[in-house]
UniProtKB/TrEMBL annotation:
<dbReference type="GO" id="GO:0019343">
    <property type="term" value="P:cysteine biosynthetic process via cystathionine"/>
</dbReference>
<keyword id="KW-0663">Pyridoxal phosphate</keyword>
<dbReference type="Pfam" id="PF13454">
    <property type="entry name" value="NAD_binding_9"/>
</dbReference>
<dbReference type="InterPro" id="IPR015422">
    <property type="entry name" value="PyrdxlP-dep_Trfase_small"/>
</dbReference>
<keyword id="KW-0456">Lyase</keyword>
<dbReference type="GO" id="GO:0030170">
    <property type="term" value="F:pyridoxal phosphate binding"/>
</dbReference>
<feature type="region of interest" description="Disordered">
    <location>
        <begin position="495"/>
        <end position="567"/>
    </location>
</feature>
<dbReference type="GO" id="GO:0004123">
    <property type="term" value="F:cystathionine gamma-lyase activity"/>
</dbReference>
<dbReference type="InterPro" id="IPR015421">
    <property type="entry name" value="PyrdxlP-dep_Trfase_major"/>
</dbReference>
<dbReference type="GO" id="GO:0047982">
    <property type="term" value="F:homocysteine desulfhydrase activity"/>
</dbReference>
<dbReference type="GO" id="GO:0019346">
    <property type="term" value="P:transsulfuration"/>
</dbReference>
<comment type="similarity">
    <text>Belongs to the trans-sulfuration enzymes family.</text>
</comment>
<dbReference type="GO" id="GO:0018826">
    <property type="term" value="F:methionine gamma-lyase activity"/>
</dbReference>
<feature type="compositionally biased region" description="Low complexity">
    <location>
        <begin position="535"/>
        <end position="546"/>
    </location>
</feature>
<dbReference type="GO" id="GO:0005737">
    <property type="term" value="C:cytoplasm"/>
</dbReference>
<dbReference type="Pfam" id="PF01053">
    <property type="entry name" value="Cys_Met_Meta_PP"/>
</dbReference>
<feature type="compositionally biased region" description="Polar residues">
    <location>
        <begin position="552"/>
        <end position="562"/>
    </location>
</feature>
Length: 947
């Protein structure tokens, strides 16, 4: 009986597998099915990519033919030339001369070579092995009687004994116009929307970052002549930023005859066979091996290799942005000289090359679940990126070019390490480094990703992989709380969440390897992606939740409107909903998509990436979330079915036992929810006097705290809390700060600029502004693990907003600035009129100079103090109720923020347990005449008193 194997993915990993199968068939009858729509062997090394995208390994070290030293076991091999020998034999020229073994050749040339190698391997197949190539895509794998069924696009399904996922480096994602992209490739298409003369921040300074830089310079017609860069005038200005703040080390020249020394300390035997803590068990071996290599190559007093690997810039470089930039440039120059001396000569380069020469030992320590969970997080979150910076860096020529670009003023170094993202009042992005003695900042028009994004199998665009994950046949490896690949055992069998190895399913390539080959430097707060063109959705039979694919036909910024600028004022952004238009008709009002489910095309593809409302959301969500995120200066936003759904989601996703500090006076619904459900969820809820910073500080510092929650001005007493001070208190204790910004709205306060991590809105109120929608919003300063849990909570909990309600929210936000300024001005007039009235004991309104919170409110609110005030009548609850009943223009109703003015006796509405004073009337000012409102309240006060 013939064996049946399917390899999904026809890139370099497939090539390795094909060679093993061909060479070790041992006369067995075998059918090998390769599913790959593109040329075989090529993978991401497309033959049509620009020649300025170079390999970072010299060509004499690259081969498509496996030998026994690479396999670790004996066996026949298919022999053939290295990339260097093949290129030399093919007459390839570099700068007009024959290729040398130390050349870094274009990746497109590697693609041609790998395609040639694949043809040679297939030609070597014995007669018992038949290879079938399917020029299509696989969309699903399911277990059936007799094996595994693979559904293909446009071809009958396959049934095989074993499936191998050779998906390599995962998905290509187009760059997002305007802000952060999902990934930097393919180039130059990913940066085609970058406008000449713009200032862009490039996140990541390694090999991938230099690829992006090449696309923006030589890819746009610039030239290097005798060490000088001659601009074309089509370049943007590029600012280099990274988390660690140190430049990537350049790949050194490979000197003839150099051979890697055998390991003395970092060996498989030293690792043993049990569980490992990487920092305690493996890192000391790495550092000892680096020290040994340093001494072996004549190094004197050894440098601090731990600092070289994991540390940041020295204190002397951190006095100011100027000292940091000077140090950074000096590091580039010094490293270039070391790289020029090369391996076998320079002891520093030899020492760090340990990480590359013995990476098989490091991988053996990390792969297959040997690390403890905490150590696994540390490896991927700290060590992997730092190691890549030392040995997966750019080519020597690229570093020389980088110095020329710096000298030409086309590129500059960022403000300092670990830049934090914020926004200017005009909506531009500000990156600030607080690691400096004198914090420095730079303002840019957009952010570009210069590192490879992590792969999430659950939300993969590849429907086959995501379908297996959702079916429980794959489980994700996580790093820093985020999925980065597929968990496998030592035989590379994919591990299920509970049942061990997945039968007949093997994963090869980057899925189980993930982060050890990527650079993960980035500002701690990522900018909100602006509305974007849509990537073509992959075919699929299942549709796991994903927010990456958006509907191409939804309303979006009209690319033909070249006058639409990213630095328009936020009022302009709100008025035109960020410049969105219906691309099909040009209609100014956005198209309304009310569908709950979406159809597939003839190839079973999802044309816009949407399948079901609860999973992928709605095109209507995208527009509402984008507008609010940009008004708040947030990295992302989520719409919910109500403000309470949004607020309680934050507390619901905290771990059991989490300690939260909340104000004593805040929205009564949230107070009641915490009282009823906090204990059930295991939350330790601590209440403090609203706005009392000393009490807040004491409570947060008394025990480990997960979240500090603030509502300012607070409902219904309008006490004010200092958001910036609370951010300092929370962050000093390792807590997050969440702020209910419903009352001031982003027109008057932007909590994220003040340091908040999360912002909540009841969209029912001012954002909608017409009393005809119930909705909620959350916005985040950064795309964190908590944020991803909130997204999942909304999806699985079903706290979804209707698409029509999302449309009404956007409609309301278009007039937000005009309404808020008018409402705030009227509220100020009404409050000042009654502030000294003998019939009123007190007016609570932050805009009054006599209000206890006025000084803080004036500091953190601009353009007004919103439209909420409370009238404390000079009497009891009965007098307050009679006053409300005597109004004629004010409507006796709950809620706030609409065009109509409302009055409410809050103590009666809230009932038992209310913290509202009995003598208080809560007043929501609308858009009526201030004179009419004053006259109505004036007569009501008289009538209530019988005057």
């Amino acid at each position: 009986m013939r064996g049946r194997v399917a390899i999904v993915g026809g890139g370099p990993r497939c090539l390795d597998l094909l060679e093993r199968l061909v060479c070790r068939a041992d006369g067995h009858a075998l059918d090998v099915h390769v599913v790959e729509p593109g040329p075989l062997g090529v993978g991401l090394h497309a033959v049509d990519q620009p020649d300025y995208l170079l390999l970072n390994t010299v060509c004499e070290q690259v081969t498509g033919f496996t030998d026994e030293s690479m396999l670790g076991s004996p066996g026949a091999v298919v022999t053939g030339p290295s990339l260097f020998d093949w290129a030399r034999g093919s007459g390839v020229l570099v700068d007009g001369r024959p290729v040398r073994g130390t050349d870094h050749l274009p990746r497109a040339l590697l693609g041609e070579y790998l395609n040639w190698v694949t043809a040679r391997v297939l030609a070597a197949a014995p007669g018992s092995v038949r290879v079938h190539v399917h020029r299509t895509s696989a969309v699903a794998v399911t277990t059936v009687p007799g094996g595994e069924r693979i559904d293909l696009v446009g071809e009958p399904p396959l049934v095989v004994d074993r499936v191998v996922l050779a998906v390599g480096h995962g998905e290509r994602s187009p760059h997002l116009p305007g802000h952060v992209g999902d990934g930097p490739y393919p180039l130059p298409a990913a940066v085609a929307d970058v406008v000449p003369g713009e200032t862009v921040a490039l996140q990541g300074v390694g090999l991938t970052g230099m690829d992006v830089l090449a696309a923006l310079t030589v890819g746009r017609g610039g030239r290097f002549v005798d060490g000088t860069y001659l601009p074309s005038g089509r370049e943007p200005h590029v600012v280099l930023v990274s988390r660690q703040g140190r430049p990537a080390m350049v790949r050194p020249r490979l000197n003839p005859g150099r051979r890697a020394l055998p390991a003395r300390y970092l060996t498989h035997q030293a690792l043993g066979g049990g569980s490992l803590d990487f920092a305690a068990d493996v890192l000391p071996l790495v550092l000892a091996e680096m020290e040994h290599r340093w001494r072996s190559y004549g190094g004197g007093a050894s440098p601090d290799f731990r600092d070289l690997l994991l540390g940041g810039p020295p204190a002397a470089a951190l006095r100011s942005t100027g000292t940091y930039r000077a140090w950074y440039t000096a590091q580039l120059t010094e490293d270039l000289a070391r790289a020029g001396a090369g391996l076998g000569v320079d002891p520093v380069k030899e020492a760090v090359e340990v990480l590359r020469d013995h990476r098989d030992v490091i991988r053996a320590a990390v792969d297959h679940g040997r690390l403890t969970p905490a150590s696994h997080e540390w490896f991927y979150g700290v060590f992997a990126g730092a190691a890549n910076r030392l040995v997966i860096g750019p080519q020597l020529e690229r570093h020389s070019e980088l110095l020329a670009l710096l000298a030409a003023g086309v590129v500059s170094v960022g403000p300092g390490p670990r830049p934090v993202l914020g926004f200017t009042s005009g909506g531009r992005t500000r990156l600030t480094s607080h690691d400096l003695v004198e914090p420095g900042s730079v303002v840019v028009d957009r952010l570009l990703i210069g590192h490879s994004p992590a792969v999430d199998p659950v939300n993969a665009a590849n429907p086959l992989v995501s379908g297996l994950a959702w079916a429980g046949r794959l489980t994700a490896v996580t790093a820093s709380g985020r999925p980065v690949g597929v968990r496998v055992d030592r035989a590379l069998r994919a591990l299920t969440p509970t049942a061990g190895p997945s039968p007949r399913c093997t994963s090869s390539g980057r899925w189980p390897r993930a982060a050890p080959t990527t650079t993960t430097t980035s500002p701690r707060r990522a900018a909100r992606p602006r509305p974007r063109p849509t990537p073509t959705a992959s075919p699929g039979t299942s549709s796991p939740p994903s927010h990456r694919n958006r509907n191409e036909s939804m309303s979006q910024p009209d690319p033909s409107r070249s006058s639409w600028r990213k630095d328009y004022d936020r009022q302009t952004l709100a008025a035109q909903a960020g410049g969105w238009r219906d691309p099909g008709t040009g209609a100014i009002p956005p198209a309304v998509h009310i569908g709950a489910t979406y159809g597939r095309d003839a190839d079973y593809r999802l044309p816009g990436g949407y399948a079901y409302l609860r999973d992928q959301g709605s095109p209507m969500y995208e527009q509402a979330e984008s507008v609010l995120a940009r008004l708040e200066g947030a990295a992302d936003a989520l719409v919910f079915s109500s403000g309470m759904a949004a607020a309680t989601a934050v507390f619901a996703v905290l771990p059991a036992g989490a300690r939260v500090v909340v104000p004593r006076t805040m929205y009564f619904g949230l107070t009641k929810w915490l009282r009823e459900f906090g204990p059930i969820r295991g939350l330790d809820v601590v209440t403090v006097p609203t706005g009392d910073l000393d009490a807040i500080r004491a409570a947060v510092q008394a025990a480990p705290t997960a979240l500090l929650w603030v509502e300012t001005p607070c409902n219904p007493t309008w006490l004010v809390t200092d958001v910036a001070a609370c951010a300092d208190i929370a962050h000093a204790a390792g807590a997050l700060l969440g702020v209910d910004n419903t009352v001031p709205t982003p027109v008057h306060t932007q909590p994220i600029e003040l340091g908040a991590d999360l912002v909540m809105h009841s969209g029912t109120k001012y954002l909608n502004g017409h009393n005809d929608v119930v909705a909620g919003f959350l916005a985040t300063a950064a795309d964190t693990e908590l944020w991803q849990r909130l997204r999942l909570h909304r999806q699985l909990g079903g706290a979804l907003l209707g698409p029509l309600e999302a449309y009404l929210l956007v409609r309301g936000m278009k007039t937000l600035f005009t309404r808020m300024r008018q409402i705030s001005a009227t509220a100020q007039t009404v409050a000042e009129h009654f502030a000294t009235d003998r019939r009123v004991r007190r007016i609570a309104y932050p805009g009054l100079t006599t209000d206890p919170g006025h000084a803080v409110a004036a500091k953190q609110m601009s353009g007004g103090f919103s439209g909420m005030l409370s009238v404390h009548v000079d009497g009891d609850a009965d007098l307050a109720l009679r006053t409300a009943n005597a109004t004629g223009l004010f409507i006796r109703a709950t809620s706030l923020g609409g065009t109509e003015s409302l009055v409410e006796h809050r103590f009666t509405f809230e009932g038992p347990g209310s913290t509202a004073p009995p003598d208080m009337l809560r007043v929501s000012i609308g858009l009526e005449s201030a004179a009419d409102l004053i006259a109505d309240l004036d007569q009501a006060l008289d009538r209530a008193r019988g005057e």
